[in-house]
Amino acid sequence: MKVGITGASGMLGSELVTHLSKLYMVFATSRRKGLEGKNVKWDCFDLTNATLLNQWLESFQPDVIIHCAAIVDVDWCEENADSADSLHVEATEEIANYANSSGARLIYISTDSVFDGRKSIPYSESDTTNPLNVYARTKLVGESLVRSIDKSTVLRTNIIGWNTLGKESFFEWLLKGLSNGRPLNLFYDVCFSPITVTDLALIIVSVIEGRIYGLYNCSSSDSISKYDFGKKVAEIFQLPDLTINKISVNVVSFKAERPRNMALDSGKLSKELKHDAPSIVDVITRLKRQYDAHFENF
């Protein structure tokens, strides 16, 4: 089987290259080269160049395409709406059109930000979407393009983990701050259901092998505020939490409006996979094991 991965040098893309290259031939693309190895072929180009994108797809004719590429800087997207639209909508449309005409399977990585966050309980796949910013709006349009084809899977998620090849991730920022005693401002009124990038990559493998199609939330089994998440990380990593400051999202002047409740109900996917989603404690514990095994000099 031939698997194409966009955004392959990013946090999720790198993890997918690692796992999928053990099973299949992987064709990876990003603006810059990431992890290399056996069964991995790289092509670096701008995904918004439709000609180069279609040449890449036609060159190896994938059986499965995993579309991870995204601009995750929400405030940047707000000020650069055309660029967000080019990647999240136009490039996604090109990929969806290719998958539809070729019969390739398409897996699209979406976001928990497609909702407005005004609901008091976790969101299910059937809840009405109402994106508050350009990033979420363009990702939602991308979802609709992907869902219009038969062999497609959309995974709404919020990943945390190690981003060793690129910009420091939220979790790395949090852990370094705790380790160094640096003041950390964390929101008590923003809640989410994060999953580790490793867990998401393994779930994607199961989605491929199980031929699972449709729209799914892919998250932890429960939810937590950003503030309580920081406290729990400090507890499990056995670090002092005295530098964590409890603040409201209202005191920060973001360029893009954010939803307060990003909690997801992952029951539909758990039932499909016949496997319970990890709890928040499970998520942080997995990160602690990874840290102990690989990041002694973090």
List the helices and strands and how they pair.
Elements: E1 2-6, H1 11-20, E2 25-30, E3 40-44, H2 50-60, E4 64-67, H3 74-79, H4 81-102, E5 105-111, H5 134-147, E6 152-157, E7 159-160, H6 170-180, E8 184-187, E9 191-192, E10 195-196, H7 197-210, E11 214-218, E12 224-225, H8 226-236, E13 244-247, E14 261-262, H9 267-273, H10 280-294
Parallel strand pairs: 1-2, 1-4, 2-3, 4-5, 5-6, 6-11, 7-10, 8-13, 9-14
Antiparallel strand pairs: 9-12
Helix pairs in contact: 1-7, 2-4, 4-5, 8-10
Structure explained in plain terms:
It is a single chain. With 298 residues, the protein is an alpha/beta fold. The protein is 41% helix and 19% strand. It has helices spanning 11-20, 50-60, 74-79, 81-102, 134-147, 170-180, 197-210, 226-236, 267-273, 280-294; strands spanning 2-6, 25-30, 40-44, 64-67, 105-111, 152-157, 159-160, 184-187, 191-192, 195-196, 214-218, 224-225, 244-247, 261-262. It has a seven-stranded parallel sheet with strand order 3-2-1-4-5-6-11, with helices on both faces. Strands 12-9-14 form a three-stranded mixed sheet. Strands 7-10 form a two-stranded parallel sheet. Helix 1 (11-20) links the parallel strand 1 (2-6) and strand 2 (25-30). Helix 8 (226-236) crosses helix 10 (280-294). The chain is globular and about 55 Å long. The model has no long low-confidence stretch (mean pLDDT 94).
